[in-house]
Amino acid sequence: MKPGPFRYLSPDSLDEAVAMLREHPEAKVLAGGQSLIPVLSMRLARPTHLVDLAGIPGLDRIEVRDDCVRVGALVRHAQLLADDEAYAALPLLRQALSNVAHPAIRNRGTTVGSIAHADAAGEMPSILVVTDGVVEVVGPNGRREIAGTDFFAGALETALEHDEIVEAVRFGRFPARTRTAFLESARRHGDYALAGVAAVLTLDEIGRIASARAAFVSVTDVPGVVDLTDILSGMDPDSADWSVIDEPVQAALAPESDIHADADYRRMLAGELARRAFAAAAGATHGGTHA
Amino acid sequence: MTTRQFGAPVQRREDPRLLTGGGRYLDDLGHTAYEAAFVRSPYAHARILEIDTDAAVDVDGVIAIYTHEDLPGAVGEPLPVLIPHPALTAARTGYPLAKGEVNHVGEAVVMVVATNRYVAEDAVDRIVVRYEQLPPVVGIENAREAAHLVHEDAPGNVSAHLVQEVGDVTSAMAGAPHTLTLELDIERSACMPMEGKGVYARWNSDDESLRVYSSTQTSTGVRACVAAKLDLPLAKVECIAPDVGGGFGVKIMHPWPEEVLVPWASRNLDHDVKWTEDRREHFISSAHERGQLQEVTVGFDDEGRMLALDVRFWHDNGAYTPYGIIVPIITATQLLGPYKPGSYRVEFFSLYTNTVLVTPYRGAGRPQGCFAMERTMDAIAAHLGIDRAEVRSRNFIQPDEMPYDHGLMFQDGRPLKYDSGDFPASLAKLKELVGWDDFADYRAQAEAEGRKVGLGIGCYVEGTGVGPYEGGHIQIETNGRVNVATGLTTQGQGHQTSLAQIVADELGVPIENVHVTTGDTRRMAYAVGTFASRAAVMSGNAVALAAKVVRAKALRIAADALEVSPEDLEIEDGVISVKGAPGSSIDLGTIAVMSNPLRYAFDEAAKKATQFAGTFDVEKPPIGDDDEPGLEGQDFYSPTQATFANGMHAAIVETDPVTAEIRILRYCVVHDCGNMINPLIVEGQVHGGVAQGVGGALYERMVYDESGQLLNASFMDFLMPYASEVPFIETDHLETPSPLNPLGIKGAGEAGTIPVTAVIASAIEDAEGFPITSMPISPPELWALRRAHARKDAS
Fold it and tell me: What chain A residue is nearest to B699 in terms of C-alpha separation?
């Protein structure tokens, strides 16, 4: 379990990094390395070059703006998890991040990296889409933005070109009177979830449900938003029967069987977690944290 | 007054060093050594047609590439069958490098030695082996059907078939008012020590000698094997176990192929060579355990007392049987636990499969046996509508029946005869601890909250401290330092503390002066190893006996010097004095000087022992006829049989009514290992054992597909529990001393692990109301079981 030979490159700027990727078609970008390094060690990937973003100034910043929380490519999960301003602006970030692996991994792993890795079992891709987030990309032709929902192309596949780098992501902030919850179930604490769900409820002035959205972890091909507003709007969140969401939720899921759980179980689990997450978001039962 | 150390919760003296990075594990040694990597079989069963190493030879830094053809003499012969048994009629072992055929994914085929491991793996990548695939045998059912064979000359895939019977089971069963049959299934798991295996060999061509460091549980065993394989005089081979990052059984197996190949390569290349196993290698080329299918038939009376117990089981021994059939023998004998079966017949088939071989893992066949017995107890209780603890209690061997001879032969070839234990007292403690009699209220309360809870119980007896022997050697230096050596190894048990406690008491010295060395054949060449919960019993008693030898010698020399009788002397804090006359005293360091008459003075203290130093009897030789120089001595402890520890566990679990997630709310242990040397260490052993037991009950399994690929060969997919999965463990102790050894101790190393699977199955069954017959169990499996039972109830 030692990686094959590769060259290590340490650019000082994003432009230099992009140029390196252009020059080396088999190069890989290294940020926190929590997915890439094990893959190298098991020789499942053989990049000729690693382009390490660690020396590029300015990528480790979290900015809370009126409409979003902008997270730079080198911001570690632990840094974002601990950021009180980001939490106040968008509680869902902390709700989800506390489920990302373990402290040691969160200390090195980057939030942007987990999004660029595009593993549907990762928590943060689903948070990106459910917040109507945006991916900021730098490439040889300058900068462009990709909507979170357009970013994920398939398992471990994104809309990024080889010579493009994610500079930052922006998680959109929710309107006032929005309540959120994140729930997942893993075989062991901190493992990839068998199923997980982010639930977002926005209420109107009289406290009725105005919009309801969910995004799932581990039970869909790519992270996507399940909009439940049509079914839930107008309901009183304190007395809602959340089982009404079962049908559209089940229609949105495409769980697969693996050695840890079969598709039937994941489907059931995701449905139950969705009901519990909305109940939690509504504050009706245990575990609900809301803005 | 020296405080008595035996029985005190002395903090582990080795921990500051180990916890602050001061440990020296195998890979911390030998930074200039060449490193080895292996081409391992990607197929479970195949013929090797051709090995092409051409492309690898060119890799910069490659030193040597070896296949089986390169191995000379005994190095190229099959590895030994370590523990032969008359019933093991088709023993098969592998070669250090595969010869013509591979029998499991991960079997070593080519060895590469290079300047470092990275380069070695680059070369491994370039070696092309052509195979002709053969039909693989995976899983016990397939092995039993024997449509294909693992070894062509092992018919039915059977390595061993053994039947033991006590009493007349057939007629007792026929006469029993009630009978039940259970079909049970236990999955594979594995030891998974934090540090994998590793070997570092240093050939010294100047004096034709070899030093081998191995991350092993038996350095004497490895030494003997290496000397035999390399045809070296034993005196030219030394083996040292450095700090070892956990063993749990897998490192008692020896010699592993690498333990032969690395020393051989070192001699061949006249250079240090090292191999450090990586995690994937550990999964696919070390050892697993536990996999069994069991069929239990029990006959019992209206009170739930067993009249006949008839057990058949099929044990998956993997591709080879180098460690013999110790695991199924232990299952067959230790299954009985604290109970009297009335009459007992046990039959097992040990079966070959094209998977990693099976050797003992903490508990070593007992968790399976305990599972069979305890599932049976719960089934009897359910059948008769009797309380589960009560059924157990009615079948207990009573304290006044000790010693109790089951009439069976145990794993050491000696009678299965329990020496001690008070099972009713242990059960009473457990019921009190877990609140057994109040559980109905607890459950009612939970149900009112919409929660499902269950209470489970499991009892076991563990034969510990098996022979044949261990030794202790003690030497006191002139500065009063006490060097203790025992040959068995340490892999985290705290021997530097527990053995020092014993010696400090026996010699009357401060524990700070006592320094314990383990697993170093230079210091103690005669030893067996650390397994079967035997270190405290065997080496504990051996160092106690050795300390008595040294103490007697010290008192004899002091008595001469002080001109009193040895009986009038006592030792406290390292000083020998005349009882009641504190003025007349002499410290042990001075005795050490006096014990070794010298011609040359190398330091101040030594001057006193030289020829012109003073008064001695010119009529006597400096060393008497029956004496030896030095304040040192050794002795060996060799018991007639194992000593039997026991314990009882109970757990309360909660299962989610919708998602079937399983949570252990409480875990209670009552444990009897006789006199405890160090309750803190015993507690730690119990905690660690329960943690591994929880892994086996709820998380760990080896997921082989039908082609024999291990699908979860990483810590991402092999679900060893984290601290977050291990419940808080409540413990209570009963100390019924063993009459078999001077210290009255019984082993504690495996205790925590043995009943956990049985206990959790019992608790889940209690929560769910349908039988749990297959373990481990995961939430998806429990959920599927619920659906199956709901369908059955509906139809």
Answer: A187
